[in-house]
Specification:
CATH topology of the largest domain: paralog of FGE (formylglycine-generating enzyme)
Shape: globular
CATH class of the largest domain: Alpha Beta
Distance between the termini: 44 Å
Number of helices: 10
Order of helices and strands: EHEHEHHEEHHHEEEEEHHEHEEEEE
Radius of gyration: 28 Å
Structural class: alpha/beta
CATH architecture of the largest domain: Alpha-Beta Complex
Helix content: 25-40%
Oligomer: single chain
Strand order of the largest sheet: 2-1-3-4-5
Number of strands: 16
CATH superfamily of the largest domain: paralog of FGE (formylglycine-generating enzyme)
Length: 484
C-alpha cells in the first residue's frame, strides 16, 4: 500500500491549536498517510530546524498549510513568533517553490480549522482548492484527495462515435435547453467543492483491511487491544451496511475525528539516594509517558537526577579546590540560592570534576530526561496540573528581585524541587557529547523558566536555546549521574 508523505505546516497559536494539529496528523496516519510535523521530533534535529524544515518540504508529496490569522501574519512577515518560526521559514520556501514551478503544482493544500479563517489563506495559495475540516465529510474529501482516490472513473468512449456505447452504471447528466444556468437573484450557483467519493461500505472495508495488517504488526499488548476494538467496530459497521445485521435502535453516531488517548498507567515513584557529599538524588527508571496531546515521552536508560538545582554553597568546594570560579565576585553570600552566572561550558567542567572525584560519570541531563523527571507522571503543561500559581513556583518578572533558596516551593509528585521557575536549567540533546560543544556555535536547550518570567514561560511546552558560552543571572543547572 502506498503511503504518501504529507508535511503539515502550521503556527503555534495556542496549546489547543497545537493539540488539534497533532490530532489531525494522527488521524491522517491512521488513514494510511505518512503525515509529519515538528511535534514528532524529540529535542533538536541534528541539521537544525531550518534545514530540517527544508528537507521535510522537499520530501513531502503534499504540504498541508493550516491557515489561521497568526500563520498568515507570519507568512507575510508581519509578526515575529514568540517561540519558534512556524509559518516564517515555510512561507519563504513555499513562495520560492511556487515561483520556480510557475504556480503549476498541486503540492500545497490550504486547510482551515474554522471556515471564517478563509481570509487567512496566503495569497499565493488562494487559487488552490481548500478544505475546511469542520465535518467527517470534509475530512474524507481531504483524505481522498491526498490518497488520489477522489473522482469517479469516466466511462469509456465507444469505438465508433456514431454508435452508442454501453449504458454506464451512472447515467450522464441531461440539461434543460431552456435552463440558463442562472441561480436566484441573477447569480450563478456555486459549484459543489466535494468530489464524488467511494461508498461508505468501501471505506469501512478498506479500513478493516488496514487494521488487520496493523494488528499483525503490533507488538505491544495495549496497542493490539486498541486495534482489536477498532476491528470489531469496523466489522459491525460492515455487517450493518450489508444488511446482515439489524440497525440498532439508537441513532448512529459519527465517530470522533480525533479519539482521546488511552489514560497513562501511573509510573512508580523513584527511590532516593545520597552521595558522599550529602546530596540527594532520585533514581529514575527507564519508562515512557503518554502525554495529554497523545505524544509519547520516553527515557530508555536508568539515571539519577539531583533533587534540587546546584547551589552556590555546593559550588564553593569546586571553586576553592580548582580556582575556576567564573567571576571575582562569584562567591557572594548566596548560600542555598541556585548558582547562576555559569555557562554550560563551566557546568561541564564542574561535572567532569565530580566524575573524576567520585568515579561515577556526572553530566547535564538531556531535555527528555529533565522533562520526564520534572513531570513525575503528570501529562499536562505543569507538574501541578494545567495551571500554576505563585504559591507553587518563583516567577513574576518585575514583581521579583531575584532567586530564592532552592526547595522554597512545593516539590513535584516524586520529590523534585524547582521544576518550574527560579532559574532556567541547562539541558543537552540526546547523544550530544561534551567534547563537541563550543562556546558560540553550539546551542543548548533551557527548560523550566525563571524568576524573571511570567507563568506562560514555565510550562513543559516552553523552551529556549542559548549558546553554550552564555551566562545569566536567571540560568542555573542540576546534574544527572549515569547508572551502570
Amino acid at each position: 500500500m502506498n503511503h504518501p508523505r504529507v508535511f503539515i505546516s502550521y503556527s503555534h497559536d495556542s496549546e489547543d491549536h497545537k493539540k488539534w494539529v497533532l490530532g489531525l496528523a494522527q488521524r491522517l496516519r491512521q488513514d494510511g498517510l505518512d503525515a509529519w510535523l515538528d511535534r514528532f521530533v524529540k529535542g533538536q534535529p541534528a541539521q537544525g530546524w531550518d534545514r530540517w524544515m527544508l528537507d521535510e518540504l522537499d520530501a513531502a508529496a503534499f504540504v498541508l498549510v493550516v491557515c489561521t490569522p497568526t500563520y498568515y501574519r507570519r507568512f507575510r512577515g508581519h509578526e515575529k513568533p514568540e517561540v519558534g518560526h512556524g509559518g516564517v521559514w515555510e512561507g519563504g520556501i513555499i513562495i520560492d517553490d511556487l515561483y520556480h514551478r510557475g504556480s503549476r503544482t498541486s503540492k500545497y493544500v490550504p486547510v482551515l480549522r474554522r471556515p471564517e479563517d478563509r481570509a487567512s489563506i496566503p495569497e499565493p495559495l488562494r487559487r488552490y482548492t481548500f478544505y475546511a475540516l469542520t465535518s467527517e465529510n470534509n475530512y474524507g474529501a481531504l483524505r481522498d484527495h491526498l490518497l488520489e482516490r477522489a473522482g469517479t472513473k469516466p466511462w469509456p468512449l465507444p469505438l465508433d462515435p456514431l454508435e452508442p456505447g454501453p449504458a454506464p452504471p451512472v447515467p450522464p447528466l441531461t440539461f434543460d435547453p431552456k435552463d440558463t444556468g442562472i441561480g436566484p437573484n441573477g447569480q450563478h450557483p456555486s459549484p459543489n467543492p466535494i468530489v464524488t467519493r467511494q461508498s461508505a461500505l468501501d471505506v469501512w472495508r478498506e479500513k478493516l483491511e488496514f487494521l488487520l495488517i496493523e494488528e499483525a504488526k503490533a507488538v505491544d499488548a495495549a496497542a493490539k487491544f486498541q486495534i482489536r476494538k477498532q476491528i470489531e467496530e469496523a466489522q459491525a459497521k460492515i455487517q450493518e451496511l450489508e444488511g446482515t445485521r439489524p440497525t440498532p435502535a439508537l441513532p448512529p453516531q459519527e465517530p470522533e475525528p480525533f479519539p482521546e488517548p488511552t489514560p497513562p498507567t501511573p509510573l512508580p515513584k523513584p527511590t532516593r539516594r545520597q552521595d558522599e557529599f550529602g546530596r540527594i538524588w532520585l533514581a529514575i527508571k527507564a519508562n515512557k509517558l503518554i502525554l495529554a496531546d497523545g505524544s509519547v515521552l520516553e527515557v530508555r536508560k536508568d539515571y539519577d537526577i539531583m533533587k534540587k538545582p546546584v547551589t552556590f554553597r555546593e559550588f564553593d568546594d569546586y571553586c576553592r579546590i580548582t580556582g575556576r570560579c567564573p567571576k571575582d565576585d562569584f562567591l557572594r553570600k548566596k548560600g542555598q540560592h541556585p548558582v547562576v552566572n555559569v555557562s554550560a561550558l563551566e557546568v561541564l567542567e564542574f561535572a567532569r570534576w565530580l566524575s573524576t572525584r567520585t568515579g561515577v560519570r556526572h553530566r547535564l541531563p538531556t531535555a527528555d530526561e529533565w522533562e520526564f523527571a520534572g513531570r513525575a507522571g503528570a501529562t499536562g503543561e505543569y507538574c501541578f496540573g494545567d495551571a500554576i500559581t505563585r504559591r507553587q513556583a518563583c516567577f513574576g518578572g518585575s514583581d521579583r528581585t531575584g532567586t530564592v533558596p532552592v526547595g522554597s516551593y512545593p516539590a513535584n509528585e516524586w520529590g523534585l524541587y524547582d521544576v518550574h521557575g527560579n532559574v532556567w536549567e541547562w539541558t543537552m540533546a540526546h547523544g550530544q557529547g561534551d567534547q563537541a560543544i563550543t562556546p558560540n556555535n553550539t546551542l543548548l536547550e533551557l527548560r523550566g523558566g525563571s524568576w524573571m518570567d511570567d507563568e506562560t514561560w514555565l510550562g513543559f511546552s516552553k523552551r529556549q536555546e542559548q549558546p553554550a558560552g552564555k551566562s545569566s543571572g536567571s540560568i542555573g543547572f542540576r546534574l544527572v549521574r549515569e547508572v551502570t
